[in-house]
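Loading example: each entry is read as two labelled lines plus one structure line.
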Amino acid sequence: MTTATNTLTRRPRVNLTVIAPLVALLVLIGIGMALNPNFLSWANITNVLARSAFIGIIAIGMTFVITAGGLDLSVGSMAAFVAGLMILSMNMLTESMGPGLPVIFAGIAIALATGLAAGFINGILITRAGIEAFILTLGTMGIYRSLVTWLADGGTLSLGFEMREMYRPVYYSGVAGIAWPIIVFAVLAVLGEITMRHTAFGRHCAAIGSNEKVARYSSVAVLRVRLATYVLLGVLVGIAVVMYVPRLGSASATTGLLWELEAIAAVIIGGTLLKGGFGRVWGTVVGVLILSLIGNLLNLTDFVSPYLNGAIQGVVIILAVVLQRNTGAAR
Amino acid sequence: MSGAILALEGVTKSFGPIEVLHGVDFALHPGEVHALIGENGAGKSTTMKILAGYLDPTGGRVTFEGKPITFTGSDQAEDLGIVMIHQEFNLAEHLSIDQNVFLGRELKRGLLLDHKAMRVRTAELLSRLECRADPGAQVSRISVPDKQMVEIAKALSRKARVLIMDEPTAVLTEKETEILFRQIERLREEGVAILYTSHKLGEVKRIADRVTVLRDGVMVRSDRTADVTEDDMATAMVGRELSDLFPPKITAHGKPILVAQNVTVPGIVHDASLTLHKGEVLGIGGLVGSGRTELAEAIAGLRPRQGTVRLNGAELPAGQVAQAMRAGLAYLTEDRKGAGLLLEKTLRENLTLPLLETFGRPLIDRKREEAALDRAIADFAIKAPDRGMAVGDLSGGNQQKLLLAKTLLSDPQVVIIDEPTRGIDIGTKQQIYSLIAQLAAEGRSIIVISSEMPELIGLASRVVVMHAGRIAGALSGDAVTERGIVGLAMGMDGSSKDHAA
């Protein structure tokens, strides 16, 4: 059929947008190598990766939420709240059970369960009560942030010294010189990419984000899939916290501040559409790396003040969205 | 040609390497209704978009009042009085009717908007169109035919000299179509040049002074409407003689397979009961808005309902689409673009969406998906230049075939097809009709909902007619006539009142 042109006013997605994030990452790495020979050193690389793992793990979940046409602004304060609750209960358990591995396992279980519950609350209110995701998660963002401040009584919740020493290796050690957070991030990224591309759940997320009505008419369980994306994100926040707490051993009102924006930015830079309908996890991983490399580069060089980190990240985010837009002349 | 206000001379248009218009000559004269007809994908939309300044021609030229012109965009064309009414509405859903009518050229008093004047003018325009919608009503809350009327009111308010209408009657009832025709006649008398497209050849014959047929991007013929018959037009469109449009009906049916009793959708459908037999093609007629679609959606589990629906004796719970589908009931929506297909996604992703779980768990087996698409393309004669293309870039007919393939993927025993051929060219229509007959011959049972009388009469051996949310009656055998259906649809007391339809 050479004349299927009735509606051919849209152009197919330009290939540039597919590889743009990768190109940007490579350019950043190139700049880094040129400016500072230490940039590609093992120590620097693992440092950057380990720091980006928390945001990265959350951003994987955010990719599913956004692909299905949703949004979650609460993840940063949710992480703080989960961390606070985890530390608090671990301290209490240490008092009753004495320090030991069971306390760590209990703490991990509490973190994961709290994350799951928090994600479920977001999801159920969005899907069943029909509250706009932006508004609802804006609300829960405030609630979790205030809860952690309250738990910490305005100060800092710190893990007991013995437990901190015992839990430390989860962040600082690893396998073959690769820290645990990096390994967990990598494994979750691979699983996430497979889930997005090759399972019915991933396809359903994209279908719902693309056109919810079509998905419903195609007998996709729209509400259940939507809910599942928020629950998944909540669990991933829990996992991120499990990796994060051993790093500092404390949580306060400023823990996880602006993580939600970094996670959303990473998702968008990676090529997932903010309005939903198309998402890719590998892009999100690239987005996370781009964002943390910018910060790292500014720290390593005295070219630009590290205080301008936010400004440069902002420019990158805007550029990413501009590139995403189809360049076809739409009149 | 002299006296043409807007004309194309040897216009070609290419999208990438593909040329879709091959040297088209076409002229619009003041005070003349010129119909442009052709199958989907023949190049009608492209032609209209070039005339209205939405697209530039690749070759040839556009002339306005005899002088060549290159539009900088549709805005400039509109400033010259060339207004196009799109098939898909161009209305801001959240604004009111009057805000839409004056969008972009609001009336002002000093710096501020003159709300009152705009509302009064809108009310005048609507009353001229015999449309009873409130000018202050939000567009998202008015019916589809009313939206069409708002589009037309918008065009009228622009003092159009050339009015291009892309299938304006596709969503209108016959009564509304009559009103539209009166407006078209009035505009013709005022000297407006009108381009009109429709798949309904009867309408073309009735309203147009001149008819031009496009086929595969070539202008096949252009005649005064008085000199050609509908058959001539249809033959020119498809380029071959049309054999009988409808396949023979099957009249022998088996036992009841789908029984709906006292189905009520609050406020829309009241107490509707119907029975479908094995191997039967049952038609549902009635005006747009009579509750046909809502009844079908309620049966298919897409809407909350009261009353019972039994498939093969087993009750289908309300509001459970997936369960209905697993039980063997599939519904094909009338809203192809809004509820049927994901326009940005590929053919494969659309085809397998309802049944993804059966294509491998936990991981989807891409090969089986591709095989299913191969089968669908072959079975339904889907013409797609590229398998990986977005479904939105397919022609309407091919979209409909894909939607059929998607609906039938679950191998349903009962298929409800809502407006099987809306906005589809006559060649594809014929294919879809024979497909429906074939499905019935295979022992499947089919409900066809349609606004097109010939379709109901040609396909269904029994027709249930709805009026104002209720089943007004049923006709079967030789009683299935246009007059019978219209009578029931308009709420007149039908001859055979048969509530146990």
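The mean pLDDT of chain A is 87.
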